Amino acid sequence: MMDVTRVGMLVVSAVAATLTVGACSSTPADQDMSATSSSQTSAAAAPATTGGQTEQAHNDADVTFAQGMIPHHQQAVEMSDMLLGKQGIDPAVMTLANEIKAAQGPEIETMRGWLSDWKVPAPSSDMPDMSEMPGHDMSSMGGGGMMSEQDMAALQNAQGAAASKLFLTQMIEHHKGAIAMARTEVDSGQFPAATEMARTIIASQQQEIDSMESMLASM
């Protein structure tokens, strides 16, 4: 009798162990199915991605703004480099020149990126005459504030305090041209990033004009 009882207990224990293992092994599978279901639900709920910002609608005014402002900024950077390479320049004017380079250099690259995305040619790096570029009639904006070859030569040859004054005088006119171009973009542009950059140019360059006029008055 004792042997039969022991056998019966062993059978019951084996069955219980099997049921326990089966229950445990089903838990990860249930979790996997739950995770898969949750993942599928999240994927279905997530919005489909469309293009980046550069794929948003743009118009001719946006293209004109970028194609015109790139060489305009390039000349401002060149003027700043000329000044920074001289001796005896007013420290405040040197600081301004560095700030102009720091602000306008990245904007040039940003605008080149827009034109590339729009499949539109960007101006070459040798700063062509903007008045000769299609769609850029600078006569209505006083030449867009761009310096002539003679103006650039005068800045290159100026030294010391005279160079500081000439740089400020020229850059004030240069900034005024940029502000006029930016206002046209704000009024007529469609591409959000371009109109936002135009607003930034208007605000920042007007502040710089005010500072430059104060510097000139104190010289």
Strand content: under 5%
SS element count, helices: 6
* Number of beta strands: 0
User: Would you list the SSEs in sequence order as H and E?
Assistant: HHHHHH
N- and C-termini, Cα separation: 120 Å
What is the rounded Rg?
34 Å
Q: What composes the largest sheet?
A: none
Shape: elongated
Low-confidence stretches: 1-52, 127-142
Question: Topology, please?
Answer:
Elements: H1 2-45, H2 60-84, H3 91-117, H4 149-157, H5 160-188, H6 192-218
Helix pairs in contact: 2-3, 2-5, 3-6, 4-5, 5-6
Summarize the structure.
The chain is an all-alpha fold.
Structure notes:
The protein has 6 helices and no strands. Helix content is 74%, strand content 0%. It is mainly alpha-helical. It has helices at 2-45, 60-84, 91-117, 149-157, 160-188, 192-218. The protein starts with a helix and ends with a helix.
Keywords:
219 residues; mainly alpha; 74% helix; elongated; disordered N terminus
